[in-house]
# Entry
Amino acid sequence: MTVTTESPRATEKFPASEELQLDTAALGEYLLGRWAEVRTRARALCERPEMWKIEGQPIPEHRARVLEQLGHLVDAGGVLLSFPKSVGGKADPGGNIANFEQLVLADPSLQIKSGVQWGLFGAAVMHLGTEKHHLAFLPGIMSLETPGCFAMTETGHGSDVASIATTATYDETTGDFILHTPHRGAWKDYIGNAALHGKAAVVFAQLIVRGENHGVHALYVPLRDEKGFLPGIGGEDDGPKGGLNGIDNGRLHFTNVRVPRENLLDRYGSVDDQGVYSSPIESRGRRFFTILGTLVQGRVSLVGAAAVASQLAMTIAVKYGVVRRQFPVPGADTEQVLLDYQQHQRRLLPRLANAYAMTFAQDELLSIFHEVFSGEKDTEEERQDLETLAAALKPYATWSALDIIQGARESCGGQGYLAENRLSTLHGDMDVYVTFEGDNTVLLQLVAKRLLGDYAKQFKGADFGTMAGYLADQVGEAAFNRSGLRRLAQNVADFGSTARSIGYVRSTASQRQLLTDRVHTMVADIADHLKPASKLPPEEAAALMNKHQAALIDAAWSHAELVVWEAFTHAVDRMEEGDNKQVLRWLRDLHGFTLIEKHRDWYLMKGRLSAHRAEAITDYINHRLLPRLRPHALELVDSFGLAEGHIRAPIATGEEHERQEEARAYEKGLA
Amino acid sequence: MTVTTESPRATEKFPASEELQLDTAALGEYLLGRWAEVRTRARALCERPEMWKIEGQPIPEHRARVLEQLGHLVDAGGVLLSFPKSVGGKADPGGNIANFEQLVLADPSLQIKSGVQWGLFGAAVMHLGTEKHHLAFLPGIMSLETPGCFAMTETGHGSDVASIATTATYDETTGDFILHTPHRGAWKDYIGNAALHGKAAVVFAQLIVRGENHGVHALYVPLRDEKGFLPGIGGEDDGPKGGLNGIDNGRLHFTNVRVPRENLLDRYGSVDDQGVYSSPIESRGRRFFTILGTLVQGRVSLVGAAAVASQLAMTIAVKYGVVRRQFPVPGADTEQVLLDYQQHQRRLLPRLANAYAMTFAQDELLSIFHEVFSGEKDTEEERQDLETLAAALKPYATWSALDIIQGARESCGGQGYLAENRLSTLHGDMDVYVTFEGDNTVLLQLVAKRLLGDYAKQFKGADFGTMAGYLADQVGEAAFNRSGLRRLAQNVADFGSTARSIGYVRSTASQRQLLTDRVHTMVADIADHLKPASKLPPEEAAALMNKHQAALIDAAWSHAELVVWEAFTHAVDRMEEGDNKQVLRWLRDLHGFTLIEKHRDWYLMKGRLSAHRAEAITDYINHRLLPRLRPHALELVDSFGLAEGHIRAPIATGEEHERQEEARAYEKGLA
# Structure
């Protein structure tokens, strides 16, 4: 049987939601994406109890346990994926991250500590060093014989890496570098492995040769031997944190520490034995961004970890929500299941849709990353695209993960607060993801600058006619909106049933148009405001930019939303027709509608939606999409394919179900 | 000098923000509110190092420390405030909470554990017991000789207290009660003091006398002696949590435990020596709500604690934001202070405004609480008003606190994640506030029901004419909005400068009108949708209610927003003219505008704001209010009056300032 729902075309029919049956195995495989095999292997490893986080474990024991777990990772071989074949690696950059992102299931501390060791410390040697460094250092890094640090951030400079104050000054008389920390703000800070386990570090410093500063470069620096810090090196423990307490973050400082000339990781800048600096990249700015470009790997892996953590949180909350009961059902002799409450659906199902969207977006991001880093498609332009995409998705995914985890935690009430059910501590662990590896707010400004740049390119070399035409369009649009004509026209067309007015928004093409138009218009509006900047002195130009900083960040965020929605849409489009596709289409609609609802004020102000259509959106979410998706909520989280060894939260592995059955039996006995 | 800003009346002038100077001492005193003296005394206690939370302290030590701190509270005498004079107390319910809410500055675990002991366990004996119980039990409770539990919540029933399954069955043969836990879901759970320290408990159970269930009542039950649990009693530790790990939450169960008849806390229901049940409140429903009414004290104190935690978070983030620099200022030889970035202002200043709003709202709530609980104005109606107000403000304050703390934490980057700077762990501690003492979502539904009830009263006994008139109004309004006439009229009036269109919104009366109208209209809309419910069978009526559950919760939330905004406005109105009042007026405007901006979609859809005015709101926030308030941000947090011993975060007590000075001096030496 099929039922006809409200539709712009009377012929369109949807099957009744209850009659659809998800093939969770097939959907699960699809969700595992391009690196399904690697991900499955990594998940199998995460099921082993010795890999699990022990909630509430004291910090010293937790740190020791995570170090031991790194050893298991070495044994499992996954750490070889990213490294070059010359040193026994497998040169599979995409696979490497697909492996790494899953470790969040075991313990986010493990994910990040292994990220420090192989994704940052090891990757810096690989990407910034040359063959001699690979041969000398990578084997010890890969085998964990040399646990190490990625010593870039300083107490005084986080996101602004170009301004770090540590110096590496070339001493022509001895032929080595003098590494030095000039003041307290220049201490390296928040450095994983620095407090306890790091035997060496890649240290970023201003490279000064013959009195000239060539900007930030990286050196390989031994830190500790069996007796502790080497001479001239000191540091301290960062102490307890809001989460990730399995990692020994700490501070490091250097007092005139001598580093051999060969230890400069010299792929993008070297000093020869005559003390002459040279670089394959002439522009200092471009060199800096090339060196920093290696950081993109970290950002991509955080997107993956955020997606996996979101899957975990949704799995726990939905599995609890479909068995937990509270408050009697009027007129019935039982209590109502939480997920049958509309508010509970509103809390969880849009977040579930977002977890799906992120999962698909990560697979696309990872493919692009793999193409660039495997050399398949490694052009300057593709690198820039990758960096922009990662700079957009890292904030999107990490903030979404916090929102999803917090929503899940609150949906589980007091149970959600117990560490055994993992949600509250998962929030603590993931919290720092939004400010490290590039503060989200800073990354979104990078994205915004790129969007503005692309926009400006449209007018590069444009003759006066084009420009005038563009301006006329702009003015015309403004006049159009201000007069409310478009809105009014829509109102007239909409007059009548909700059905007709929602019809327009429901199609994929309309969702795309609304989301795309928003990015485009926001960027154009800001560009318009910033136009005078090119003629202003730098302070005033900066002040003008700052006046629109919040709008810039909003525009970048809306771009990220569009990209993620597109990834979800691609994924649905590629599926074969069937029940899975139908349910995922609804889920994608829920995702798209939630975005449009969130920015409804903008669509109304800009005349893109009539008040009538805008109101119909909430109605459609609450009374169509949520009820259609509710019967499939459990299948949708089951499709994430997480095993009990991944979930581990007692409320989501049968305990609550048993309690409810026992309570029902008791009540029946009473009656 | 004064500058003229855009204004509906050309004569209105504002002083330039830079020329205003806050009197932080006077403002501080004002913020301390009606119970300034009690609050000052409590804060002095919180400055003592032995009262401080030690971040990262292992759980067993933390629990022991907090128990010891409870002893210091006894010594300080503040715990006497709430108790009756008959047992040496001071019978000052408002003062008691003013004292208690401040403890969050020392350690939220201390606040909540003392809340368990005196605010729940002690208060239950006081409010639900009678003279004999006061004399027998309160002295031991007040002196901490008897640490105890408030054993209401069960694993299977949290918010739905009426459905708890623990039974207390009167045994006529022996004249005592048999306390029994029938199944696993009926274990008492999340109970503070249950895992370790509790020697007694007030246990809530279904009271069964002669086969009849009289509903939930409370009994005083001894739990442990020196050797551990008494016979028939068992339990377990809830283990680590997302925060508040200084409290030994645990589970309790009872297997046919005999409790003497006298231990029934019998103010609202007693069993005489003939085994006959009687109660001064005939209606079982009303009796239940009266017994539960004592919980309001806990909710009021959480509002206070949330306000104080918000003050703390804002103090840390603003003090860091005004000294921390990042990224060079173009055209200058220095770096930009974080709070000079527009986005940083947007992140922190509306949250600062909200912290102010909550502080004022708490003082109003506390006054009403005091009047009811001191007996000054203790009528049924006033009690209901108090309960509704607390049910609205508890969700508002606790969710706002999480938002404020998280915003503060992210604004401090990596520093914000270190436990020493307190923000990330403060989030963990406060997280559970949104789901305990009445889940926020459930409380908001109580508020919504009250709003609907009040609305319905308007039509009680209304004749057909009134009703028809009302319906005509409704229909008229809908037609009016749908046709967009009101919007169009506004557009015409607005045509011209932004100034003219923002003028309307800026006045206090307009903000009030917009916020009030929203609550009123939302409630009316829902009432309209729910009208058929009275004629439906219970299941269908419940289903209809559920269809509008999200809207109900939104309406209740908007009511809470209005109440808090009103409290802020009253507080500003009561101030003498001067710089303090001018700056607080702007801060209140920022608060009001932020609310209107947040719900802009609603105002647009309902035709209350034109697109043009709606756009001007963001512009006014970003380009008028934020720049005006920026120069006063530090004074505004200084006015909270928190001492170094309360703040304790190194980044907010001078360390960052020193680092910046040192770095500037170093850079100057380089130049």
